[in-house]
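Notebook entry, structure prediction.
Reason for the run: the old model in the group folder had no record of what sequence produced it. Starting over properly, with the input documented here first.
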Amino acid sequence: MDQPTNIRLTSMTSKGGCGCKIGPADLSAVLRNLPSMPKHPDLLVGLDTHDDAGVFRLSEDLALVQTVDFFTPIVDVPYDFGRIAAANAISDVYAMGGRPLTALNIVAFPIGKLDKSILADILRGAADKMAEAGVTLVGGHSIDDSEPKFGLAVTGVVHPDRIRTNAGARPGDALILTKPIGVGILTTSIKRDLLTDEEIARVTAVMAQLNKTAAEVADGYDVRGCTDVTGFGLLGHALEMAEASGVGIVVAKSAVPVLPRVRELAEAGAIPGGTKNNFRHVENRVDFPDALDQIDRWILCDAVTSGGLLMSAAPEHADSLLSALRDAGVDAHRIGTVTDKHPGRILVTE
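New structure, fully documented this time:
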């Protein structure tokens, strides 16, 4: 008989691991040891710019967008874990300006240790989120593993002339962020029983929200660069944009939306290892004001799951885009600007 389901999914990760991405520095060190692959003439976006997905041209007016993402549980409700994992994976297609079409499930699950209904709930949550996105599930792969892991491989389409990449930001552009940060600190707090049910529901809703509406609204404006803010944190992904575009970025700390109680919980020590790794990776290329303490610096680097889109919009379109996003129900904020000064670096202001 199957075991009861009253188990905390977040306690299943080995040694309390967070399922965080491998850090940028470690990943770069690995990739440097691999032989260079010949570049196909129809590969429009590959590894060079650290973009969210690869793009391969099929014809003059059609290109494939392909991405994959999965992780260990960050919430305890299996259905919510499935929704969040699906929204997170699908987001990469939206970030590239594409329309997601199909997905494959990626499942690792301790089938002899946990009730099969838990896996069914994870898959049901993902299926409901895929249906919301208009994505068709075409299959998947599963393995029996010691801890649960779940995600999707997603395929979408985009016009080759309408791809949004990390390399598209231009001096003078406005930076717009479509979800608040602080998710990593809050999900670490879930594991430590520091959040109320209401607070868990709030951060879950943020992570489970698709970036579909934000991406569709952006289609009507001159958005020249885009990425989604996930495991490398706001400053990590902004730095990738600065480096790929050959520009500098200015982020106004006071303009960055942060979820409630994040500072308080960070001060209590609920800071994920991935967040601290992110800070170490960017600190030599980010200029912080002296008045900004270490807690606030960590928050700006907090490892996010299923975060918002970071858009680089032409200055003449920024105000109207921001208004349109908010009118559509997107919690969008203008958080900074792109500059031709200090290329490849970020200046944080108060």
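Summary: The chain has eleven helices and 13 strands.
The old model has been moved to the deprecated folder.
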